[in-house]
Specification:
Length: 180
């Protein structure tokens, strides 16, 4: 399985990707880890470097999941994907999920630092359909609509759970046990 999961911040991408990765023993890549440099303040990594990192990752893993909100990087990853999942549960749900988000140590040194960024994040999530940048609904819709292989859009948390169950049945380990 070669799976790309994307959507707005707070849509459930990381939660779903980590769950599937753990259960299916799949390689896991959070695009946040290759989209930014380690500088202070953070700066976007070059597109070429991020592209190279995606290529290295997919070549290193027989089965993998890549998740994120960067349409340009999602487009690159989707060239090698068998499945594309667009989590689009709505802005209110994304905001609620952001409020319940656990500390993300790969992004913030402390939980307090993450919490100081929360108001900005909630505003940014709310502008999803208004923006025209690499993280916008418009760009996500374009990536989804132009993908020609298996694709799924989940429009609520309930649909996200249904999609998770469907994808679990497709995991390589589950496929081999069903064939026996």
């Amino acid at each position: 399985m070669h799976l790309v999961i994307f959507g707005n911040s707070g849509s459930g991408k990381s939660t779903l990707a980590k769950e599937l990765s753990t259960e299916g023993k799949l390689g896991y890549l959070d695009l946040d880890t290759i989209a930014w440099t380690g500088s202070t303040p953070p700066q976007r990594a070059s597109h070429d470097w991020s592209k190279e990192q995606i290529s290295l990752f997919v070549n290193r893993h027989q089965n993998w999941i890549i998740e994120g909100c960067y349409a340009s990087l999602i487009s690159l990853a989707s060239e090698r994907a068998s499945h594309l999942v667009f989590l689009n549960p709505g802005i209110d749900v994304c905001r609620q999920n952001c409020l319940a988000r656990p500390w993300e140590p790969h992004k913030y040194r402390t939980k307090e630092e993450q919490d100081r960024n929360l108001a900005m994040l909630l505003d940014w999530v709310g502008e999803y359909k208004l923006r025209t940048d690499d993280f916008s609904y418009q760009e996500h819709r374009r990536v989804f609509d132009t993908f020609s292989r298996t694709k799924i859009e989940a429009r609520s948390n309930t649909e996200v759970k249904t999609v998770a169950n469907e994808l679990k049945r497709l995991l390589p380990e589950n496929q081999s046990s069903q064939a026996q």
